[in-house]
Specification:
Rossmann fold, alpha/beta, 25% strand, single chain, 181 residues, 6-stranded parallel beta sheet
C-alpha cells in the first residue's frame, strides 16, 4: 500500500487513509461547494453513502448526470483496483454516469479498498481477461493523477481535459471483489 500512496502522490493525487464512513463524509464535505455526482457503484450503494452525504448537507446528484455534470463540484466513484507501481486507479466505466463523474467535475473522489491494490500492471492481466469474458463490451478507465496535458504550447497544464484534483480515499472493508467498484 505504501508504494501505491507514494506513486499516486508523485503524479499529483491526494491520497488519504480513511478509517470509517463518517470520516469519509467529513473529508468530502470539507472539500466541495456544490453538487456531488454520486456514481452508481455497488460498493457505494451498499455502504449507504447517499443518505450519509445528504445528512451532512452535501448536494448529492444521483440522476441526470448529463444535465448536472458540467456544473457539479465533484464526482465520487469506487475503483475496481489500484496499481501500486504507477499510483493508478482502474474502474469499470461502462455506465455513462461513471464516465461523467470521472471527467466533467473539477474534483474526482475515488474510493479504493487497499486490499485491492496490485503491485504491477502485469498482475492485472488475468483480471482483464475475466473482465473481457464477463463483460465483452465494458469500458475500463485507468486514472493516474489529475487530468494533465501539454497540448497548449507544450506547457503542462492540469485540469483542462478532466478533473484538476484527484482524491484517492483508501477505506478498508469496502469491497474485496476486484470486479466490483
Amino acid at each position: 500500500m505504501e508504494n501505491f500512496i507514494i506513486a499516486a502522490r508523485n503524479v499529483g493525487a491526494d491520497v488519504q487513509r480513511i478509517s470509517n464512513l463518517e470520516e469519509l463524509v467529513a473529508y468530502i464535505d470539507e472539500r466541495i461547494e456544490g453538487g456531488l455526482l454520486l456514481s452508481p457503484c455497488p460498493s457505494l450503494k451498499r455502504a449507504g453513502l447517499s443518505a450519509m452525504l445528504k445528512t451532512a448537507g452535501v448536494d448529492v446528484v444521483e440522476e441526470e448526470f448529463r444535465a448536472h455534470g458540467a456544473s457539479a463540484a465533484a464526482g465520487l466513484t469506487g475503483a475496481n483496483f489500484g496499481i501500486a507501481a504507477t499510483g493508478t486507479v482502474v474502474l469499470e466505466s461502462t455506465d455513462e454516469a461513471v464516465r461523467i463523474a470521472t471527467t466533467l467535475p473539477e474534483k474526482h473522489f475515488v474510493l479504493l479498498d487497499p486490499r485491492k491494490i496490485l503491485a504491477t500492471a502485469d498482475e492485472a492481466v488475468p483480471l482483464l481477461g475475466d473482465f473481457h469474458k464477463q463483460m465483452p463490451q465494458a469500458y475500463l478507465a485507468y486514472i493516474t493523477g489529475p487530468s494533465r496535458t501539454a497540448d497548449i504550447e507544450r506547457v503542462l497544464t492540469i485540469g483542462v481535459h478532466g478533473p484538476a484534483e484527484l482524491h484517492i480515499l483508501l477505506l478498508e472493508g469496502l469491497s474485496e471483489d476486484l470486479m466490483e467498484r
